[in-house]
Specification:
The chain is an alpha+beta fold. The chain folds into two domains: about 70 residues, Aminotransferase class 4, branched-chain amino acid transferase, N-terminal domain (D-amino Acid Aminotransferase, Chain A, domain 1), CATH 3.30.470.10; about 120 residues, D-amino Acid Aminotransferase, subunit A, domain 2 (D-amino Acid Aminotransferase, Chain A, domain 2, Alpha-Beta Barrel), CATH 3.20.10.10. The chain contains three helices and 14 strands. It has a five-stranded mixed beta sheet, with no helix packed on it. The chain has a five-stranded mixed beta sheet with strand order 10-9-8-11-12, with helices on one face. α3 links the parallel β9 and β10. The longest helix is centred in the first third of the chain and has 16 residues.
């Protein structure tokens, strides 16, 4: 996997930049840990947000910002999921997502995949996960990537991090997806296929 650059996806709606604090934190942690750059960036000063509409602002960077794109965004409907096994390393938001996309494309029969790594649930290919146990929202403590919405909700103690195994999913009543563009979205009537193709409905 090409690890020369990483990127942030930032939600812009009607000219407003969302959750920039959390994007700055992740971007600067990545620049420090991956590229050895200690001087922090403030990404909001690189953004000229479109006045109207919903956009995905993609900022590509290594030590410095190299590219800024504004991409119109439409929320996808996701109803079917399949648990797949992988040892993929995506601890940083690398620009090259070829391995993730290849893994997803191997399962065209479902809308999205849920990645199991080292025997535990991590993320989908595009979002962090949370599961409702009837009292609280639980998020996997072992995500592939620490997302910005997940980080925000953990700081607010809305989410509880725990190790989750695939055979425990049947004990939850709801599943939610989290990423910068959709926020925290509870899925209605989702179908999840486990590793043996058995159906888990949440």
């Amino acid at each position: 996997m090409d690890r020369n650059t990483c990127f942030e996806t930032i939600k812009i709606k009607d000219g407003r930049i969302h959750d920039i604090k959390w994007h700055n934190q992740r971007c600067n942690r990545t620049r420090r840990e991956l590229f050895g750059e200690k001087k922090a960036l403030e990404l909001q000063y690189f953004i000229t947000p479109p006045d109207k509409g919903l956009y995905r602002c993609r900022i590509t960077y290594h030590k410095q910002v190299t590219k800024i794109e504004y991409i119109p965004y439409t929320i996808r409907t996701l109803e079917s999921f399949k648990i797949v096994q992988s040892h993929l390393d995506y601890a940083y938001k690398y620009s090259n997502r070829t391995e993730l996309e290849h893994l997803k494309n191997q399962h065209p029969d479902v809308d999205e995949i849920i990645i199991e790594k080292n025997g535990v649930i991590t993320d989908t290919s595009i979002a962090n996960l949370a599961f409702y146990d009837g009292q609280q929202w639980i998020t996997p403590s072992t995500p592939l990537l620490e997302g910005t919405v997940r980080a925000k909700l953990l700081s607010e103690q809305f989410l509880i991090p725990k190790v989750i195994k695939s055979d425990e999913l049947k004990h939850f009543s709801y599943v939610a997806l989290m990423n910068a563009m959709i926020g925290f979205r509870i899925q209605k009537n989702s179908t999840i296929y486990d590793l043996t193709e058995r159906v888990i409905c949440l």
